[in-house]
Structures are given as structure tokens and as C-alpha cells.
């Protein structure tokens, strides 16, 4: 259902906003079932690379039915590099994705250059410990947004506001509703998005139930996939616009 919503919503938004489309990069993971590693390429708009494994000791990150899942007990990180790094002072960027972390430890990471390094933003999605965490420096200084304990697949949008020097902030939306804002402990930039499942503090149940419909855009509307009821209204609006143009 989420895949259908993604395709319908993207098409409808193109009807009304083709002249001002601001999607930087996206991936709906419509690959053949199997390993995520090696899918996608630099020929895809907005991406400098395809998906490439950074770290793997056990388990896998796979495409199953058009979405990414990670096997139980996985210790695996895979990432993809953007053509244009994010972080220009004065700009705002929105990253949206459908996500069901399940009950195992995993993260969606926004890295600057060094994969898995200490300067990164980690969207920690363990179901009982959902939060957006900013890490900086070897000491691991952190700022966090607590997302509560959402269950099942939800639509998340992270809004990054890049201010001058260290005046960066981030805001998280859960199914279109803001759940928190925080400043970042360092000048935030990133050029790589990672999907990671791994053990933590002795936990041996790393894994991801579902990750899908990744969109990086300069507007909230394009990063957020509407709920089915909103899609009906959006579709009606698109038809009215098209009808008005024909008239």
C-alpha cells in the first residue's frame, strides 16, 4: 500500500507542481528481490553512486517486495552518496521515508564523507527507543529528539535547517505531525545516506522490518507522502487544475 501511495502521490504532485519540482533524489527500491548492495547507479538523478556495502559481519540488507528489510541478528551497513552534499548555509532540506524499525536495533544515518564516523546524524529507530540523535567528535556529544514509541510502518520526514556556522537545527515529523525540534552540536553537513542494522550493547537482535520510498527534497510536501484520504483530495485538486487549464 505504501508503494502505491508513493507512486500515485508523486504523479499527482507532478501535475500541479511540474514547473517547480524540487526533488533532489529519490529511491522507491523497485529492484528485483535480493541483496540491496549493487542496486542503483550514478545514472540515477541526484545520486553519485549506487548502494554499496560499508560494513557486514552477519546478516544482510535485502530488497523484498520493493522495500528494504534486514535479517534477524544482522550487523550490516549499506549506503548511497548524493551528487550534491547537503549543508549549504541558509538552505533547508527535507528527507522523507517509510520506516518500520521493528523491535531490533537499527539506524538511518546521514554521514559527511566518513562512513560510520563520529560526525553523523543517526535516526535511531529501535521501536522502544525511537529518537533522532546527532553525534559529533570522538567523545560522541549528542543532541536528541525523542520520537516516543511508534509501531508499524510510518512516514517520517526530517527537516534540516542549515544556518550559519553551528546554528543548524533539525525537526522531525511523524505522519505529517511535528514531534520535536533540536539544535545540532556541530555544523551539520552530509553527502551519504546509510541504512544500518547492528547489535548494540550486547544486543544480538539487529534488523529492520521495512524501509521504503526515500525522498530528498527542498519542500516538505514532496518529502511527505500523503495518507490515502489526503491523496483523494490531492487527486481532485490535480483534476481541477488540469480542467481549468483546458478551459
Number of spatially distinct domains: 1
Q: What's the main sheet like?
A: 9 strands, antiparallel
CATH class: Mainly Beta
DSSP E strands, number: 16
Q: Please trace the helix and strand order, writing H or E for each element.
A: HEEEEEEEEEEEEEEEEHH
User: What is the residue-mean pLDDT, rounded to a whole number?
Assistant: 76
Strand content of the residues, in percent? 35-45%
Give helix % range: 10-25%
Assembly type: single chain
Index terms:
247 residues; alpha+beta; Jelly Rolls; 9-stranded antiparallel sheet; 7-stranded antiparallel sheet; 16 strands; 44% strand
Q: What is this entry, summarized?
A:
The protein is α+β, with helices and mostly antiparallel strands. The chain has three helices and 16 strands.
Q: How would you characterize this protein structure?
A:
The chain has helices at 2-17, 220-223, 228-246; strands at residues 23-27, 34-35, 52-58, 61-64, 67-70, 75-86, 92-100, 106-111, 120-124, 130-136, 141-148, 154-161, 169-174, 177-183, 190-197, 208-217. The protein has one domain: Jelly Rolls. The protein starts with a helix and ends with a helix. Residues 12-19 and 227-243 have low confidence and may be disordered. It is globular and about 40 Å long. Helix 1 (2-17) runs parallel beside helix 3 (228-246). Strands 1, 2, 4, 5, 7, 12, 13, 14 and 16 form a 9-stranded antiparallel beta sheet that branches. It is built from 3 helices and 16 strands.
Amino acid at each position: 500500500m505504501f508503494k502505491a501511495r508513493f507512486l500515485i502521490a508523486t504523479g499527482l504532485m507532478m501535475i500541479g507542481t511540474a514547473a517547480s519540482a524540487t526533488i533532489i533524489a529519490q529511491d522507491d527500491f523497485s529492484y528485483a528481490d535480493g541483496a540491496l548492495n549493487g542496486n542503483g547507479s550514478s545514472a540515477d538523478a541526484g545520486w553519485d553512486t549506487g548502494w554499496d556495502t560499508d560494513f557486514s559481519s552477519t546478516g544482510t540488507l535485502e530488497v523484498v517486495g520493493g522495500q528494504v528489510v534486514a535479517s534477524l541478528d544482522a550487523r550490516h551497513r549499506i549506503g548511497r552518496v548524493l551528487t550534491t552534499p547537503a549543508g549549504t548555509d541558509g538552505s533547508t532540506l527535507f528527507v522523507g521515508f517509510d520506516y518500520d524499525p521493528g523491535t531490533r536495533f537499527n539506524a538511518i544515518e546521514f554521514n559527511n564523507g566518513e562512513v560510520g564516523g563520529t560526525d553523523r546524524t543517526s535516526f535511531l529507530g529501535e521501536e522502544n527507543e525511537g529518537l533522532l540523535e546527532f553525534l559529533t567528535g570522538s567523545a560522541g556529544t549528542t543532541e536528541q529528539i525523542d520520537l516516543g514509541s511508534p509501531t508499524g510502518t510510518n512516514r517520517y520526514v526530517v527537516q534540516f535547517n542549515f544556518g550559519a556556522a553551528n546554528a543548524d537545527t533539525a525537526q522531525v515529523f511523524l505522519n505529517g505531525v511535528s514531534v520535536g525540534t533540536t539544535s545540532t552540536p556541530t555544523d551539520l553537513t552530509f553527502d551519504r545516506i546509510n541504512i544500518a542494522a547492528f547489535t548494540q550493547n550486547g544486543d544480538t537482535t539487529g534488523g529492520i522490518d521495512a524501509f521504503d520510498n526515500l525522498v530528498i527534497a527542498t519542500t516538505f510536501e514532496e518529502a511527505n507522502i500523503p495518507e490515502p484520504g489526503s491523496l483523494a483530495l490531492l487527486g481532485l485538486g490535480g483534476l481541477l487544475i488540469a480542467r481549468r487549464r483546458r478551459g
